[in-house]
TrEMBL record:
This is Sec translocon accessory complex subunit YajC. Keywords: Cell membrane, Membrane, Protein transport, Translocation, Transmembrane, Transmembrane helix, Transport. It is a single-pass membrane protein. It is found in: Cell membrane. It comes from Zunongwangia endophytica.
Length: 102
């Protein structure tokens, strides 16, 4: 019984690290993987470096995506596409609330 009490703080620390650090990180990685898998031609995207564009083609050989920007066509790795920024770009615009007049 005494041995279990000695290891209890260590076990609790591991549980806290798992539930607050490791598990959310695995969940986010899974979401990004699904996002990249579901990309299709015509999707508007934002890369992690901030480049905005529209997907025009895929390069399976290089695991890349070819996007069209204002400057022309550019090839990026699929891993450089930002899930969060692309979803913000594609979500519908929220209506602006009018201020009440007194």
């Amino acid at each position: 019984m005494e041995q279990i009490q000695q290891f209890l703080p260590l076990i609790l620390m591991f549980a806290v690290v798992y539930f607050f650090m490791i598990r959310p990180q695995m969940k986010k990685a899974k979401q990004e993987k699904n996002f990249i898998k579901e990309l299709k031609r015509g999707d508007r995207i934002v890369t992690k470096s901030g480049m905005h564009g529209k997907i025009i083609d895929f390069s399976d050989k290089n695991n890349a995506v070819i996007i069209e920007t204002g400057a022309g066509k550019i090839t990026f790795d699929k891993s450089s596409i930002s899930n969060e920024l692309s979803q913000k770009l594609n979500e519908p615009a929220k209506p602006v609330k009018e201020e009440k007049k007194k």
